[in-house]
Amino acid sequence: MKELAVISGKGGTGKTSLVASFAALAEKKVLADCDVDAADLHLVLSPDVKREEVFHGGKKFAIVQEKCSRCGKCLSLCRLDAIRENRSEEGEVKKVRIDAISCEGCGVCAYFCPVEAIESFRGEAGKWFISDTRHGPMVHARLGIAQQNSGKLVTVVRTQARQLAEEKALDFVIIDGPAGIGCPVIASITGTDLVLVVTEPTLSGRHDLERAAALAGHFGIQVVVCINKFDLNPQIAVQTREWCWRNGIVVVGEIPYDPVFTQAQLRAKSVVEHAPGPTSKAVEMTWLRVRDLLQQHQAATELPAQRRDRAGCSPRALPVKPPPPVASPGRREEGL
Ligand code: SF4
Ligand code: SF4
Known about the structure:
CATH superfamily of the largest domain: P-loop containing nucleotide triphosphate hydrolases
Order of helices and strands: EHEHEEHEEHEEEHEHEHEHEHHHH
Bound molecules: iron/sulfur cluster
Number of domains: 2
Structural class: alpha/beta
Helix content: 25-40%
CATH architecture of the largest domain: 3-Layer(aba) Sandwich
Radius of gyration: 24 Å
CATH topology of the largest domain: Rossmann fold
Largest sheet: 9 strands, mixed
Distance between the termini: 37 Å
Number of strands: 13
Strand content: 25-35%
Shape: elongated
Number of helices: 12
Strand order of the largest sheet: 3-8-9-2-10-1-11-12-13
């Protein structure tokens, strides 16, 4: 079983649309929507929830009013100004309370409260689900509003997806990762076999691609790139391709800008289901290249260690050769 994480340095690159199409194209896989702060894969895959569990995030704190002497010590200690006091018109402190949204659960106030009036509890921070979809099983989650610990919830989703893949002897776990390079992204990619960064030909897209690739590189994970909407700015698309080439990163797909992406979303379908044509073909070619790389990783894993050493390859460090330019259907002539 091999894990693919699809991420993007920034939002709006078409990452989830691509994952939805991979879901339609791949066989024997489980889907993991790890974009728990802004989950949207379920909008396309219409999951039928089979199991629902509560996610308990980090500790929360609350003041037991009967014990509180209103000394004000906790107010001065909280670095996040999460503790508030209610005063009467005469200025007398009536109540000291913790704002649950501002509190990050460090516990300093509870530690120093002279009368032990501050108690911790674990509240519901979200939910995670195992569902059936028309393209197979999916593990997904919903983080509550203003809740933290999204990285922890991502880890829960990934653990469940891996278990499911092992139980059902599936070949792939396909992860829809969050945008950016923060904690939930790190939780989404660590220990995976391949990271696909979806980018677009803009300056910010280029910048975010470099950050995402550096992050995956830091964890020793092979990175490949898909340039979505490559024909919107052929000059930057060429620069992106050259940057990938220089850094030994394979460009596994170049997909033209096509309104069928939006049309497919409106019909709650993936592009390959909604509109077979040149763009769908480009998406399919991208998946086939990704699948080949994952299968190479699988083959390398199954090689006995001795032979692997002799061959000079390991499951995590496959030789990466720059590919010939990708010939996407519908590709424009200019700038290529
Ligand atoms: S430190 Fe304890 S007793 Fe003092 S105001 Fe805060 S909660 Fe109340
Ligand atoms: S737990 Fe930490 S962040 Fe929360 S109110 Fe107490 S001191 Fe402030």
